[in-house]
Design brief:
Layout lengths: L116 H4 L7 E2 L6 E2 L9 H22 L16 E8 L3 H14 L3 E8 L1 H9 L6 E3 L3 H9 L8 E6 L1 E6 L19 E4 L4 H13 L7 E3 L2 H9 L5 E5 H6 L4 E4 L9 E7 L6 H12 L1 H10 L5
Helix pairs in contact: 3-10, 4-5
């Protein structure tokens, strides 16, 4: 027994008319990307300028028609249809465009949609829809507007601009692009506390010689700074007041190169201005009514003080042990002690408040100052440039003025 309608039977094609109205509704196709841009209109009454589509008339049983097709079954979504089974581009579930009048090309340069991924052995990400005159990747939003082409053109234009800018810069083989040797950014320097005044001035001079740089200092006891560096504190340069402390950083593999001595320093006895106790040497520090401040033994100034006292065979008990030389000096300036063993450069920096008393045993405790750029530094180029500047003639002049001896 033959069904009332067979897919091979004729269906009238009323080209140029509107889409059939008041027909059973169809579910929106899953590939539909946006709602229609206009609201549906009411059906026009008979006699309008356009003819309404005719009904589908079943053909009487047994009347020969076109070659029989397959029974109508579940159909895949539009984006998964085979290339040979495409229908018109308008209608329910399709692009909400107007029907093209008869005799007018459907779409300039139009073609079938890209076939489904499963039938072509590849993903849909490489399919290109050429409708509307512009190439775009399958799955991009909107009709064929050529967005893909514009994006490719924009990318090519950006690459051309980048190449032009790179061409205007300096050639690494011939030298840096700027007059400052390419040194910019922040340079972090960990330095012994006794270098505070001289390095602060050197830092300003370095910034003036390298526009675009900023030098940030961390002044403290050398041993504490070495511990911070070995524990991973970010720094570009380490300037120590003792080779032994610098060795702990180098042995840990944190030095970028060999540490170099850039200055030397000697101890003096710091007393309040006018020297009210009349102190002239180390032996006077052992008096019962003299309060003395020293640096802790683990920091360079404390180790040097212990060496000098041993050389003079003087035993004394300090009232305080400070973590760095600035701490020991501050006890004198604040009037909390009568004397302190500090570096010569520190008494010069505080000449308005303290007086430095020289003693011969200080020659037995000369302190060398090594400096090195650090490995894994945040700004390795800046760190190396700062080390070179400290060891240059301009850096050495500042150090000599502060009271340091040449290495």
């Amino acid at each position: 027994m033959r069904p009332l309608w067979w897919p091979g039977d004729e269906v009238p094609d009323r080209g140029g008319g509107r889409t059939a109205r008041r027909q059973p509704g169809h579910r929106t196709a899953v590939d539909r990307r946006r709602p229609a841009r206009r609201r549906p209109r009411r059906a026009r009454p008979p006699g309008g300028r356009r003819r309404r589509p005719g009904r589908v008339r079943p053909v009487a049983g047994g009347r020969p028609g076109r070659p029989l097709g397959r029974l109508l079954g579940p159909q895949p979504a539009a984006r998964h249809r085979g290339q040979r089974r495409q229908g018109h581009r308008d209608g329910a579930g399709r692009h909400p465009g107007r029907a093209v009048p008869g005799g007018v090309a459907d779409e300039p340069g139009g073609g079938r949609r890209a076939g489904p991924a499963g039938r072509h052995g590849g993903g849909s990400g490489d399919q290109v829809d050429h409708r509307g005159g512009g190439a775009r990747r399958a799955g991009q939003r909107g009709p064929g507007t050529g967005c893909g082409v514009r994006r490719v053109r924009a990318a090519l234009a950006g690459a051309a601009v980048a190449a032009l800018v790179a061409g205007c810069g300096g050639d690494p083989a011939t030298g840096p692009a700027d007059a400052t040797g390419g040194v910019t950014g922040t340079v972090s320097v960990f330095a012994a506390a006794s270098l505070t005044e001289s390095f602060t001035r050197i830092g300003r001079d370095f910034e003036a010689a390298h526009p675009g740089t900023t030098v940030v200092f961390n002044f403290a006891g050398s041993s504490g700074l070495a511990t911070q560096i070995n524990q991973g504190a970010p720094a570009d340069v380490f300037a120590s007041a003792a080779p032994r402390t610098m060795a702990t950083v180098a042995e840990a593999g944190n030095a970028d190169g060999t540490p170099l001595t850039f200055a030397r320093n000697q101890l003096v006895i710091a007393v309040p201005a006018g020297n009210p106790k009349g102190i002239t040497g180390l032996a006077d520090l052992a008096g019962p009514d003299v309060k003395v401040a020293l640096c802790a033994d683990q920091v360079p100034c404390g180790a040097a003080a212990r060496t000098a006292l041993d050389a003079a065979s003087v035993a004394l008990t300090p009232v305080t042990l400070e973590p760095d030389v600035k701490g020991a000096l501050s006890k004198v300036t604040l009037g909390e002690v009568d004397a302190a063993l500090v570096y010569r450069t520190d008494t010069r920096a505080a000449a308005a408040k303290v007086t430095g008393v020289e003693f011969p045993e200080s020659a037995r405790a000369v302190t060398d100052y090594p400096i090195v750029a650090l490995r894994d530094a945040p700004n390795p180029a800046g760190g190396r440039a700062f080390v070179e500047y400290v060891r240059s003639g301009r850096g050495q002049a500042v150090l000599a003025e502060a009271g340091f001896q040449a290495p």
